[in-house]
Each structure stands twice: as structure tokens, then as C-alpha cells.
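It would be a great kindness if you could assist me with a short task in structural biology. Thank you for your consideration; the sequence and its C-alpha cells are set out here.
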Amino acid sequence: MKNKTLLLLFTITLLLNRNLLLGQTTQSAIYDAVGLLNAKNGINAILIPGHNEGFDVVNPITGKIELNRVSSLPPSYKNNSERRDSILVSILARNANLSPKANLDEVKNAYKKNPFLFNIFDPISVSELPDTVIFLVSPKPSGATNIKDNIVNGLSDFMIKRAEQELTLSIFDKFQKTIERYPEFKILFPKTISLIKPIDPYNYNTTLKTIQESLQEDLKNFLQNIPTLYSIPKYQLLNKEVPSLTLLFATSNMVNSIDGKKQLATTLYNLNNQKFLEEKNNYSSFLKITCILSNSMRKKLLSNPENKDVDYISKEEIDNITHGDIKFRKQLALYYIGLLYQQCQNISFSNGLKSFSVLNLLESQKKNYKTTFDLLLETTEKIHQLDTALLVVKNEEKQRNSDYNTNIIRADRFPLYIEIVTNALNYASPIILSDSNKNVESKELYTDLKNYWVPFIDKTVNLTKSFEQKQYSLAINELGDLLATTSMYLESLDKKNKTQLSDSLKKTSGNELAALNTDITDLETKINSIKKMANSGSAVNKATLNDELQRINQKLNDAKTKKEIITWQQKKPSKLLFSTSKILEYAGVLISVSQANNSQEVESILEQTALPPGSSRIKKVSPFNISINSYVGGYFFRTNTPGNGFANTYGLTAPIGLSISTGFKKGGSLSLFGGVLDVGGIIGYKLNNQGAYEQNINLAGLVSPSVHLIYGFPFYFPLSFGVGSQWTTPSTSNSNSITLTPHFNMFIAVDIPFYNLCTTKN
């Protein structure tokens, strides 16, 4: 059915909304219909009830309120045929997307095929509307130690912390490489990504705290950032093959808006202007018509700002406007449906086999337009009730949190979200599912689409709930489920289609790469020119030239970095297009980092990703390096001499000594290490006793000469593998005597350079 749904309501994407696309100020169809109704019945104004003291008088042409809270209408607003015709022409021209200066003949020509309004200028024989309204008041919604021990304990604490920092720092370095290749991270974690860069170890604590704060801020906005993924070219390409991505973006946008301060009327208005709804598929069109029908029922005047929060018009207000008279209500319904029809010219949708005209669907309402109008009002009323119920929950939640100084989100919010978003799609049902619509295919298509909408709502609301309750890891898993729902179709694509998608991405990135190459050439030319000027000996301000040179060099480096990224993307378009696992993997790691406060939590982070470089990178990028070094990790395969007390063949080691190294860049490093001390026993004690202070440390237990050949892991991982010999004092020895016995062993440990004594560069 997915192929059938590919183009449903294809041109309905523009339905009822040409004015918005052209950036014009809009007025809701219901208010324009009221303006037509009144003008045809002797009242040249829109009368808006709502105050016990009277009603507001609105100019139908400008949408401006000209009189406030009057009880009766001045004679100048009554029975003026010239004024009436100006009102009719202005309203009809606006809804037909004609020029504001359109004349009567142009308007008549535009409406000559409109089955509801073709005779709007003909005289009518209905009674004149009274110049007052009936006011029905609606309820408002409620809204002592020795120096030696201190040194060894301090050193052990430092090494534990430094090992943790080395590993954590390496995460950020790996992230920097990853996020450059996957543009999703800059969308989903904008504040954090701007901070993730190689961290100066001396600023570790401050930087980590800042990153954690930024992560928390980004996580608050995570859901609202999901629809912005559409701005990335690959998602635009994917959306053409996977129309259901539109639903992912839409539900994220809607639920996030409702979860905030917006009610559905404003939510759907804002949704209507999202870029992803410009995608030409049935889902975007279906959502577009939902938005526009919703907008048509908002109490939005032409003079109101476009982003103004306004409520829906109510059945009670319609009763007031029409004075409960069936004749006027029927006339209002006729004009309202007629305006919708006029805005739907040349719009059609398809089930993959044939196209269906939206005009035909609306024409089928010609005999039942009042029923259609009443059903739309009922949908509006139901949504208004749900919006009010949600507002009550939010207000009670706010009051309770204020009284008890808490920040608790009530669980009864979330079922209301599902109800509200589900009911929003009922707007289209009076037109498509009516008995007068004999187009069976359109009904089946509508039903399939609505059924497909439900799991997206459920999953998005669950995702929102997890974020609100700060269950971030669960939220990422749920995001994975949501993405899986949209990407199932990708898995079914044959090799040819996948190749076509990859080629499209290559073409897009190829154009960008060509532009970058041009920029790089221009920047290099400018740099050469500045250098010539600086060396020419002419009377130039060298400080200014240096500043300019530094600025251009920075731009050149940025351009080269971006070129490297795009080149990687071009080589691996399939990985970039079809794999969401990498995004979710590192999003999960970022979330873990945001909550990490100790080494155990960092360990859980490391389980999720391979670790890249820390400060051990220096020896890997240098041909020759000498440093005071330590390693923290585990030894194994230790040989032992019976009777000496060394029964363990594995344990914790933390040797400290001198390291002479040569690097092979991404190939790793090779070091000859000579150890002097080993504080592994002290570190083990602290790790087993939550950092407790170790008293009366035995110096004999610390002195442990060693010689190891050590290989630093490739790809700048801060881990190393060592093999060699270590001399230790048996535990059975006198506490003050040093009796060294050699043992062969191996270890895997975190590489922690203390000081670089000598380094040569390539």
C-alpha cells in the first residue's frame, strides 16, 4: 500500500493555502465566510461576540477592529450596496489568490466554475440579519598521616583520575571525527557540538562541566530538533523514497509543540509552514489539508500577526453569528465550503494508479455542505475540549510544582497528546468519508493513511515522555524504534534503487566539493599575495597583514576540513544514507557523558564505543619521544616461583618509569619502558574501597623495576599492550626489606604520560 500512498493528496499540499506560500497575511476561511454572510444580508461588517457588554465590529476588508463592545450597529454599516460589493470583491479575490486590486469582472471569472459561489453576486431572498447578536457566556478554561603515605595516595588518586580522564577525553576526540561526517549531530546537539574539541587536560573539569550543561540543554530541545533534520540533503533524498519520514518529522513537531505552551490551533498553523511539508507525497499532502482545515476554523483576522495564538471558533459563537436561524447557518456553510473550493483549483492526489481531483470531492458535498460544515465544527469542538483538558492538567501541574518546589511532569499529560493529535486528522473525514463521496479509492487511501499515523503518534509520545522524565537512554532506544518504522522501506529497496539514491547524494556533495575547491584556490591565492606584500619592504602595516593572514588561514583550514568531510561522504554514501545505527550509538554515548560523575559511569560509556586518543597520541605522531610515563591496567600470564607467595597470575598493575617511543601515526606506537615503581596495589585498594585512604604504605611493596616492550594501539586508542619482565618483592618478606624477584608478564593498560622530556616532530 506504500506505493499507493506515495502521492495521496499530492497537490493538496498547497490546498487552501496559496496566500501563505506567497507570504501574504491571511484571514481564516470561517471569518471570511461570516463577512460574506453579513454583506449579503445588509451588514457590512464582521460582528464578533464574546463580551457581555457588546460585540466587536471588524472591517471585513482589512480585518481591523473598528468598534469595541458596542450593543448595536451604527447605520453607516448597514444596507450600503457599494460597500457590500467592495467587501464581496475583496474577500473573494483574497481567497482566489488574485491581486487586492482585482475588479468585479476578474473575480466573477475566477468563480464562474465554483459550484458554491458562482452566483454570489446575485440578489438573495433571505431575511436580513439582525444588527445585534445573542450573547451566551461560555465558561473560561482554568488554566594525621605521614608524607610518604600522602604522596603515594595522592599519586594513586591522580592516576585513577587521569586514566578516567584519558578515556573520557578520547571519547570527545572520536566524537569530533564522527560528527564532522554525520551532520545529524549538529542538528540534534547544536550547543554541545560547538564545544566538542580536543580538551586541554588542565581544563578538563571545567570543560567537562560546560559540556554536560550544554548536553542537558540540547536534550531539552532534542525533540523539536528532529524535524530540522529535513534541512540535510540526505533526508530530502530519503524522504522521496521513504514518504513516512514526513510523519516522523510531523509528529515530532506537533507533540513537541503541544508538550510546550502551544495548543493545537497554533501547533497546526506552525506545522503548515514547515519545509518538510513541501515534500510531494501523500503524507505531506494529507497533513497539509489537516493544517489548512484547522486554520480555516481559527479566530484569525487579517489584522492579526500571522504567529498570533488564537483559539478555534465555537459552535456557540456560530449560533450567535447566525442568531440560531437555520437559513443563515446554511448560507454561512455554503460560503465557507465555497471558499475552500476556490483555494483548491488544480489540486489532485493519486493512489499510484490514477489521480483524484480534490475539487471532485468538494463538489460531492454540494447537497450536503451544511452537514459537512457541522461535522467540521464538531471536530473543532472536540479538539477544543481536549485542549482545555490539557490546559487544566498543565496548570495544576504548574501550581503543584510551585507549591512543593518540584519539577514533576504528570503522566496524564501523555494520553491527552495522543487524543489531540489523533483527533486533528478527523478534519478531513467529513469531506473524504461522507456518504456523498462515491470515490471508494480515496476513502480506502484515507483510512490507510490514518491507520499508519497512529503508531507514529504513540511512538513519538513515548519518546517525549522519556525525555520529559529524563530517561534519556530509554528515549534513544525509542527513537531507534521510530526510525526503524520509517526505514523498513529502505531495507526492501533493491540494489538498483539504492545505487540511484547513492548517486544522487554523490551529485549533491560533488557540487559542494567543486565550490569548496574554488574557494580553496582563491584563499591560497590571497595568502600568497599577502605574503608577497609583507616581504616586499613597502610601507605596509605588517600587524594588519598578519591579522589578515591569520584570518584567511583559518578560513582555508576550515575549507580543507570540510573538503575532507565531503570527500569521505562521497566515498561512503551508502553508509551515510542507510545507517542510522551510528547516529543512535553516539547519541547514546553523549547522553551517558552528560550524566557521568564517576569512573563506573564512564566505564558504562566506554562499553558503547571504541576508544580513540588521549595524551598518548603524542608518542604516536612523533618519530622520537622520551617521557615519564605510567600505565594503569591489568597484568596477566605472570610467572611465579613456588613458595614466594605470588600465586596470582593476573591482577592490577600501575608501573611508573621512563618511556622511549617511536610513532607510526594511525599505526600506533612502539615503546621501550623502564619502570621504577608500581602503585597497582594501592590503586586496587582504592578501587575496592571507594577511594579510601591507604595508611602505612610499605615502600618495599612499591619498588618494582621493570622492562617492557609496549605497543600502543592503532587509530590513536589510548590503550597499550606490554610484554616484559618485572621485579617484585614477595608479600612474605619483612615489611621494611626489599627482596626483588623477576617475573615475566604481559599487560593491557591505559597509557598515561606524565611529562614529555623530549619530542621530535616530522
User: Anything to note?
Assistant: Confidence is low (pLDDT under 50) at residues 1-24, 135-144, 598-614, 642-647. The longest helix spans residues 495-535. Residues 409 and 469 are 7 Å apart (CA to CA). The chain has 30 helices and twelve strands.
